[in-house]
């Protein structure tokens, strides 16, 4: 077992699958010789050649669109969008084609592509480099959307995403790329998609989050634990389709739920979870649901980004408020 | 100042409007055994087209995009392809699709509002119609890349309209395919109109073929109503692509004799007086004249052909109309390879609320 | 007062504002000579000239992008995207530029553009012509998103949208274009943005919807009324920012809420409303919130589209279920 | 076959690497009073650039994109513009921006992570930097349309990189602007690299200037390190645009002597041995040699210039560092013209949770 940070885990998963499945190809800007601006693909072009690790021209629409063509012809393209602020030109191909190629040909053609992109704020990156677009994708039928929150889950979920016969949007929280290391067995073992991971058990309230925000969420759980409050922490992991069963189960026990995400509040994925609670968990709820999210503003440039991002303080405050209700 | 690059765009025509040769013909164009299938296919496509419009008018299918007058492009291009090549068509390319083996019944099913129409029994790897303009050029470039990577001697052939050449997808895909030297042939059906927007307002470029220059590849113009020219240039481009010579662009100049679709009324924006003279250039009459000149065609053959093609159309219509309707479950069952657990309840609800007769209650 | 259907009301509003504000220009595919594929702009190029009613080439990215440039230079562009299935190539400019130009220049430049597009299913249109993309836009900070549900509101809200100093996405339900007529005074009077309209008062439950779905929703209210059940019907009208005050008020009285929308359920805008109820209306709720929505599938081609769309039957069933809870 | 269109791309250089004239010079290039401000501006831009990199290294600003060696493009182009024209720049265009009147303190504020840096006191109508590649070409085309519609004799000038020419926005915007005959000048800073992707992999087109042909407009190449060539071609293109002659494309060939940005390490993908000889072509030395040849420059002047420019940089750094930090309210207050009611609560929450020292606790 090696000690890996998240970006290294991504790299290992890509390498494993390229090694074991000749259909896997990578494409994107600066992923070859340069190994990716975050080094997610470092060494892979050397190892697998420039035909399978394709340094593309600067053209996100065509990166997504050619990946659709490759996937339909039996390759398993893993396309990288350099930063999620540049992912919008891919939406047309993802929504109008990738997500529905199987459906519109009644299974004759499929689209097993993965669209990888770093996402999120917190690394003092330039403008348009800190976006959290997961909700845009999570609304699109036919897609899977995945966001890992640790090196181990990055490894196992990325393998699952590549092996999945349908398109997967795989968003990697930039802030976690090098934040911490974990023992990860490079054994090609995939984790299951479509299920949440319960990172911490607790009976007093449920904290639901995903991606980088699990840092703050878990820290908040620690703060609460110090006060004797048991917070259950659920990592969404697969954002679409949503494993509400796990969340409803948890809330059935705790009666309280705080949802934490980095994207803007309105229409964020937290809304879908809260809506499900309002529909199917309302009798369990002993207090109003709370969302601690990015504000409904443009992610600010570096100097204010940590005032935008949900903090441990905000999560703890929301949890306390939830717990005050008796 | 020094000139550092020079480019030319060439125009090719073999048969003039009367079907007379304007220059030495390629061998296939002197061979009735090669020409008659093309003639037959164009005739079949046109009869299908007319029937589809009629079916739309009587509410039996939805909106339909006629290829009237542009049959030489679809048949010329598709007949230059091999079975294992892949066609990546637009919504106006049923001529090419039929040539590839898509059935008329399948086409009607699609235009009749049923996804099963894109589940072709024969060209299993051909793309379904692309409605979002020019997106298919990217898909075709991706297909071509896959062929090249796997060392398969296959070519991706993509058709789009003159309007489509204004869209970013077209340029991005051509540029990438050129860098990749991928086996891709892109054919522009320049039928002079993008709904109501005439070619002159679509681009200030005097030819659309010259858009290839932006990608550093070859672009040429064909008389798109001369199936000999279309097929010849398509053959050359496909052979070049197959041999590793990279992508090409062919601008096939034709004319949209009909409305944009059955939902359109072209008299709103186009003087019928402009259309009238264009009938003189249409491709079927032109090839017929050529065949007549070769003494390879007769009134009897014509009559028999029209009869056969009409019967085939009618049989297709019957097959189409006899197809049982899709069910609510069809909305769910091919969305993913396996139905995600999260969708089970919705699928059940859809079946629960489905009208008992399976009909459409819009 | 003239009897107008919705598309005529759109046309009148455009004409009024072009007449009174020389900064207003229209651009889009087939909007000039042809008057738009739905005739929304019919007669306007004749009246205001081809320089102000611009038939563009086929290029949605550039339609949105040039509109940003025009707006920054003081014009008030109203861009038409022919069908909302072709709106995705505009997202990059809408999200990365239009929505934030004011913010990123601290007010030095603004972006008063309107992006109009027909939306929704139900007219047996071809593939990709029946999309309901409102949730994608409603998640984007800096935007306004508006959807009218009647000729009168189309007229007044479109005028408000054009006059608004910030970008507005204006989605017009195709199914309503010619469905019914209304007396509309062509007097240049705008309706307020950012507020809901209560179309029907009732004390037993609240039905919230927008756009074409208000047809089914109001019909459902009639069915319920025949059984003596008073349904309050709220038309969202401005989908972003959301006027939750009106909805919370209503639910405070009725204690029950059914949200109806045509877009796919997961991550649809109904989630945001339900989430707000779970957060701020939970003590009013006497029954679980219900969403009656399009399924999480690709909008089917014509033959199944009415099995996709929420029906009166489904809405009534949801309402009944809600009312059963005591 | 007949040739139906012919195109050429011309390359312009006036001063060779040693600053020697290669052909008769345009009048301004013989006039020290015209040249010295250009020399000064390039020097100022380079000193600013070096300081910005140093500030990034010490954590005083964020990622910064250096224009080292490409100063002739920004200064050449911007100096050919009128005040009332509009610059629509990319992130590498601070040279052009400074020439337009953006202050160094504003630029630092932006790169320091503060939106107020784009609230220029002087070129009020210039666009802020575009980070999403090539999107700005669309904006510039829209600006140009507005000028034309209002009969204003103004020109929109847009700069992008070689990588940017692969993006759909670039082609779509050029095509539209050409149809509109809008007063637009698009300048490609071909610095040979798009991060790690060399020009040769960006496009198979032998020149980027020829991408203009796809739009039916004129495209030309300049030695982008020869400010005389850049300014001359820019002047011509701007004058043509202003006179109603429509858009043009200029490919200015330069070289990125530094890393892509401070977040990049070019040695990972580019042999330093490739870079070394490129220093011989850099624009400042070249113009200095020309000035020396004109007897219009001295060591004393050079020394004084560097002193003045350095002082100006230092003053800007001080002004930047002295700027009070933004507050949480700044996230909300310019998002809309007026704060929507729905945002009031969030704004209050942001203020409530803001750190008391206003600092950045990332
Ligand atoms: C991206 C996109 N925008 C708009 C449309 C609506 N639309 C359908 S066909 C058409 C015109 C296409 O013209 P052209 O490319 O010349 O093809 P033709 O229909 O003439 O074959 C338009 C605007 C679309 N299908 N896709
Ligand atoms: C749409 C988009 N994709 C990717 C990026 C990330 N990125 C920033 S600069 C760059 C390379 C740009 O190269 P070029 O256009 O040649 O400009 P240069 O940086 O060389 O001036 C890339 C890929 C971006 N900013 N925007
Ligand atoms: Mg056309
Ligand atoms: Mg470059």
CA radius of gyration of chain A is 19 Å
Helical content of chain A (DSSP H or I, runs of 4+): 25-40%
- Uncertain regions spanning at least 5 consecutive residues of chain A: none
How helical, in percent, are the residues of chain B?
A: 40-55%
- Which structural class should the secondary elements of chain A be placed in? alpha/beta
Oligomer: heterotetramer
What is the terminal-to-terminal distance of chain B?
Answer: 67 Å
Structural class of chain B: alpha/beta
**Helical segment count of chain B:** 14
How is the CATH topology of the largest domain in chain A named?
Answer: Rossmann fold
Description:
The complex is a heterotetramer, with two copies of chain A (about 325 residues) and two copies of chain B (about 350 residues). Chain A is α/β, with parallel strands linked by helices and about 325 residues long. Chain A is about 35% helix and about 20% strand. Chain A is built from twelve helices and 14 strands. In chain A, the strands form three sheets. Chain A has a seven-stranded mixed sheet, with helices on both faces. The radius of gyration of chain A is 19 Å and the shape is globular. Chain B has about 350 residues and is of the alpha/beta class. Chain B has two domains: about 10-15 and about 30-325, Rossmann fold; about 325-360, no CATH class. Helix content of chain B is about 45%, strand content about 10%. Chain B has helices spanning about 30-55, 70-80, 95-100, 105-110, 135-150, 170-180, 200, 210-215, 225-240, 270-275, 285-295, 300-320, 330-335, 340-355, and strands at about 1-10, 85-90, 155-160, 185-190, 195, 195-200, 220-225, 250-255. In chain B, a hairpin with a 2-residue loop joins strand 5 (about 195) and strand 6. In chain B, helix 1 runs antiparallel to helix 11, helix 2 (about 70-80) packs parallel to helix 3 (about 95-100) and helix 2 packs parallel to helix 9. The longest helix of chain B is centred in the first third of the chain and has 26 residues, at about 30-55. Chain B is globular, with a radius of gyration of 21 Å. The mean pLDDT of chain B is about 95. Classes of the chains: A alpha/beta (about 325), B alpha/beta (about 350). The interface of B and D includes residues 172, 179, 203, 211 and 214 of B. One thiamine diphosphate sits at the interface of chains D and A.
């Amino acid at each position: 077992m090696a000690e890996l940070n998240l970006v290294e885990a991504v790299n290992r998963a890509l390498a494993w699958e390229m090694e074991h499945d000749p259909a896997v190809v990578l494409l994107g800007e600066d992923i070859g010789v340069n190994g990716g601006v975050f080094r997610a693909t470092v060494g892979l072009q050397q190892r697998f050649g420039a035909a399978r690790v394709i340094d593309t021209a600067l053209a996100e629409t065509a990166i997504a669109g050619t990946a659709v063509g490759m996937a339909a012809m039996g390759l398993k393209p893993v396309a990288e969008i350099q930063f999620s602020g540049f992912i919008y030109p891919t939406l047309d191909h993802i929504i109008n084609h990738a997500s529905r190629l199987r459906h519109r040909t009644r299974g004759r053609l499929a689209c097993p592509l993965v669209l990888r992109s770093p996402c999120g704020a917190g690394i003092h990156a330039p403008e348009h480099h800190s976006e959290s677009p997961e909700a845009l994708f999570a609304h699109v039928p036919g897609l899977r959307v995945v966001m890992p929150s640790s090196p181990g889950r990055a490894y196992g979920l990325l393998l699952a995403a590549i092996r999945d016969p349908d398109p997967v949007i795989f968003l990697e929280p930039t802030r976690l790329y090098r934040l911490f290391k974990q023992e990860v067995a490079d054994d090609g073992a995939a984790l299951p998609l479509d299920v949440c991971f319960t990172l911490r058990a607790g009976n007093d309230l449920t904290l639901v989050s995903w991606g980088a925000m699990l840092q703050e969420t878990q820290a908040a759980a620690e703060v609460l634990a110090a006060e004797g409050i048991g917070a259950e922490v659920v990592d969404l992991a697969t954002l679409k389709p949503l494993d509400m069963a796990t969340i409803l189960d948890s809330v059935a026990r705790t009666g309280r739920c705080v949802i934490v995400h980095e994207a803007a509040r309105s229409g964020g994925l937290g809304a879908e979870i809260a809506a499900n609670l309002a529909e199917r968990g309302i009798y369990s709820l002993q207090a109003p649901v709370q969302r601690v999210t990015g504000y409904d503003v443009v992610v600010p440039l570096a100097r204010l980004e940590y005032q935008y991002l949900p903090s441990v303080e905000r999560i703890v405050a929301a949890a306390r408020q939830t717990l005050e209700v008796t | 100042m020094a000139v550092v690059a020079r480019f030319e765009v060439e125009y090719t025509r073999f048969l003039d409007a009367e079907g007379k040769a304007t220059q030495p013909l390629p061998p296939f164009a002197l061979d009735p055994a090669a020409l008659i299938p093309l003639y037959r296919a164009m005739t079949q496509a046109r009869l299908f087209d007319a029937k589809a419009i009629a079916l739309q008018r009587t509410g039996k299918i939805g909106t339909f995009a006629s290829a009237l007058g542009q049959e030489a492009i679809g048949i010329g291009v598709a007949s230059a392809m091999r079975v294992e090549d892949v066609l990546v068509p637009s919504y106006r390319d049923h001529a090419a699709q039929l040539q590839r083996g898509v059935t008329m019944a399948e086409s009607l099913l699609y235009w009749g509002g049923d996804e099963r129409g894109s589940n072709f029994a024969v060209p299993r790897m051909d793309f379904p119609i692309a409605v979002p303009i020019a997106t298919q050029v990217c898909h075709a470039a991706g297909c071509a890349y896959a062929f090249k990577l796997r060392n398969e001697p296959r070519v991706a052939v993509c058709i789009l309209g003159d309007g489509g050449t204004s869209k970013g997808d077209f340029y991005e895909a051509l540029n990438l395919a050129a860098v990749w030297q991928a086996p891709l042939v892109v054919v522009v059906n320049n039928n002079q109109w993008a709904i109501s927007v005439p070619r002159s307002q679509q681009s200030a470029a005097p030819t659309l073929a010259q858009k290839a220059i932006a990608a550093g590849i070859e672009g040429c113009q064909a008389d798109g109503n001369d199936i000999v020219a279309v097929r010849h240039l398509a053959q050359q481009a496909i052979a070049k692509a197959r041999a590793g010579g990279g992508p090409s662009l062919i601008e096939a100049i034709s004319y949209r004799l009909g409305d944009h679709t059955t939902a359109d009324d072209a008299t709103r924006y186009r003087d019928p007086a402009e259309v009238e003279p264009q009938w003189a250039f249409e491709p079927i009459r032109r090839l017929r004249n050529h065949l007549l000149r070769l003494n390879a065609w007769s009134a009897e053959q014509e009559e028999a052909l029209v009869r056969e093609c009409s019967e085939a159309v009618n049989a297709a219509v019957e097959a189409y109309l006899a197809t049982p309707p899709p069910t609510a479950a069809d909305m769910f069952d091919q969305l993913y390879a396996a139905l995600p657990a999260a969708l089970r309840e919705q699928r059940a609800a859809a079946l629960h609320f489905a009208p008992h007769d399976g009909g459409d209650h819009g």
